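User: Is it possible to get a 3D structure for a protein together with its bound compound? The compound here is iron/sulfur cluster. I've pasted both below.
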Amino acid sequence: MAKHAFLSASSSHRWLACPPSAMLCAQEADQSSPYAKQGSDAHALCEHLLLEALGRPTKDPTEDLEFYDEEMQSSAEGYRDFVMEQVEEARALCADPLICVEQRLDYSRWVENGFGTGDCVIVGDGILHIIDYKYGVGVLVAATKNTQLMCYALGALDTFGSLYNTGRIKLSIYQPRRDNVDTYEMTAETLLEWADQVLAPIAKLAAAGEGTFCAGDHCVFCKVKATCRARADYSLELTKHEFTKPAMLDDAEIADILPKIDNLVAWATDVKEYALTQALAGVHYDGYKVVEGRSNRKYSDEAKVAQTVIQAGFDPYEKKLLGVTAMQKQLGKKQFNELLGSLVYKPQGKPVLVPASDKRPDFNTAANDFTDI
Ligand code: SF4
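Assistant: Yes, that's possible. Here is the predicted structure of the complex:
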């Protein structure tokens, strides 16, 4: 088995926390998902808009993007504007900063065959800035001590550090669909200390399939998450809550349970999905069987249905207004804004209960309104 792929920067959070997971994941087949394709479409658009803003040659990839929509466009524009602000800041410090887009970054000095691609790297006198675009919504990504970005920064430091005096390292996450723009700063000295004392020794363990299993939030990115015993033990441990006497849970007990629920539900869902896949492949689980789920009636031949209904003297079609995205595609962005800008609004999203650390502003509830008064 080749040792090259499994110590990637993007999975470093997982394998640094649980070194044996690297070897186990490397033994599992890669599974492509629509989310991954959507992410790479979103990145392609960002790359194009940024190159365009920098005045470099580029080709508009829009027509080849399977998941292109209005949200992807406005998110990429926001990313481009954010990066260009950072470029201006760097230009204020240094006459001629280096701005790299989709830059291969090699951190193999610390991790065997370690390399990755930085969405944008700005290097100037006194500063090295790594900017990473995250299009996903599932997990809020923090910049603080983000090991993926730290690996990229090491790669950039190794390649460009000698050209500039890069004492300050900036790591930024731009995650538009979570309204999350997060930046963390550290010194090059601290980064190198971490690389020597933490990254390199753990990478060595991980490459050898050694180290201690450790379950936690990072398990959601692990390919063996459904069958891993350490994760099962950890998840079942979460259910051992000491309930006190009264029949009903009080608010303090619910507050204690809430942070454990996401991991528990994620683990339970992973086990159920894995068991279904296995059952379909012929594995028998005592007390269980596979049945057909609910389904709705469908037309087998839409053209024939329409023809038959017309012949019977009825109109088989309904007339519907195009959705916002389809309408913008038809009119073009400029005309869409001119004609319909004042007729488009964003309704309030559904309330979601999240940890207090979430950066989104508080939902405007009736209780909040009352408190304000
Ligand atoms: S599921 Fe979690 S504990 Fe198990 S190998 Fe993967 S990262 Fe480690």
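The mean pLDDT is 89. The domain at 12-207 is CATH 3.90.320 (Lambda Exonuclease; Chain A).
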